[in-house]
Write a structure and sequence with these properties.
Layout lengths: L2 H38 L7 H8 L7 H34 L11 H14 L5 H23 L6 H24 L3 H11 L8 H20 L1 H7 L3 H6 L4 H23 L5 H13 L6 H21 L7 H23 L4
Helix pairs in contact: 1-3, 1-13, 2-3, 3-8, 3-11, 3-12, 3-13, 4-5, 4-6, 4-7, 4-11, 5-6, 5-11, 8-11, 12-13, 13-14
């Protein structure tokens, strides 16, 4: 390798690193701006000073309840749930080398949703029990899809197709459960299934924070292994990656994040699906896409919730807003794949 070639490689890597740092800094600033806006804006506007005093634990008339009890848990849930969806979705897409390999598409989110609907309508479970039921169901569906797609290893296309079939069955199950629901249970189930941050409490936020604190670093630490696996299982194995063990570990970890986030906020549509591709587009090639996707996921949920509350004449759950954003991208992705002759 000549000196000129080495210099070119070094300059390219330096530019990519600088771009990544700049984009991450911009995303962090945007997140802080939207968080501040969400805490200040509402039926009553509170200036930044009052919001900061509430966060620091001071008693501020009016703001202590509105900001501290209503807005702050909602924003905190948006941040941690968005991070979980972005990180989990990007992990699946990176691992299986396919943008369609998202928990939204392959049935994992629907598994948690079906369990929650069953728990609310049929079993009459409370909020905490529904959350636990949804977590277990999400993990169970992921293991079933993984097991059915395993044949001398896991092929991304096979897993996606099996996941899509599982998602179709779960959607039918949800429709049947809702058709048998009473009016009150139907409203509760639909509110949860839409993906909403309404009525968020610290009791809902805390389990997601714990899951993110435990599982998030594990996934981020596997970024280099996932990067090697994008080159193919044989190449990754040649580089020293224990392919099947790593694949199973990161799938369980990613599913845990998705399940915990879904149990608290519902299946916020397409955040897991959109975060990875958007992050890859703005950050550019090189480096792990996991952390940028987590930042994009946070931003999508925060902006979607803010728009759903105040941008339209009526209020909409955050899942409705993100669904409107994600559905056209899914159609575009499928059309582009057909035109280029690519497989799923």
């Amino acid at each position: 390798m000549t000196t000129a070639t080495i210099d070119l490689v070094v300059r390219t890597r330096t530019r990519r690193t600088q771009r990544r740092r700049v984009v991450m800094a911009i995303l962090a600033v945007l997140i802080l701006v939207v968080v501040a806006t969400s805490l200040m804006v509402g039926h009553t506007f509170y200036p930044p000073g009052d919001v900061l005093r509430v966060i620091l634990g001071e008693e501020v008339e009016g703001a202590s309840f509105t900001v501290g009890v209503l807005r702050l848990p909602r924003v905190a849930l948006a941040v941690v749930a968005g991070c979980c969806f972005g990180l989990g979705g990007s992990t699946f897409q990176t691992l299986l080398r396919n943008p369609l390999a998202s928990p939204d598409i392959i049935g994992i989110s629907l598994g948690a949703s079906a369990a929650a609907a069953f728990g609310i309508v049929v079993l009459g479970l409370g909020q905490a029990e529904v959350a636990a039921f949804a977590i277990l169901a999400g993990l169970g569906v992921a293991l079933v899809v993984y097991g059915l797609s395993f044949r001398s290893g896991v092929v991304g296309t096979r897993l996606i197709l099996i996941g899509i079939g599982m998602a179709a069955m779960l959607e039918s199950a949800i429709a049947y459960i809702l058709s048998k629901a009473s009016e009150w249970d139907l409203q509760a189930a639909l509110r949860w299934l839409a993906g909403s941050l309404n009525g968020a409490t610290w009791g809902e936020v805390l389990p997601v924070v714990v899951a993110l604190a435990v599982v998030g670093p594990l996934l981020l630490s596997r970024g280099s292994d996932l990067g090697a696996m994008r080159l193919g299982d044989d190449t990754a194995a040649g580089l020293g990656v224990r392919v099947e063990r790593t694949r199973l570990l990161v799938i369980i970890a990613a599913v845990a994040l998705i399940a915990f986030a879904t149990s608290a906020a519902g299946p916020i549509a397409f955040v897991a699906f959109l975060s990875g591709p958007i992050a890859a587009r703005v950050v550019g090639p090189g480096g792990s896409p996991l952390l940028p996707a987590a930042f994009v996921g946070i931003l999508l949920v925060l902006v979607g919730d803010l728009c759903g509350q105040w941008l339209f004449a009526s209020r909409y759950p955050v899942g409705v807003v993100t669904g409107v954003l994600g559905a056209p991208y899914l159609v575009y992705l499928i059309v582009r794949s057909n035109r280029t002759g690519a497989s799923l």
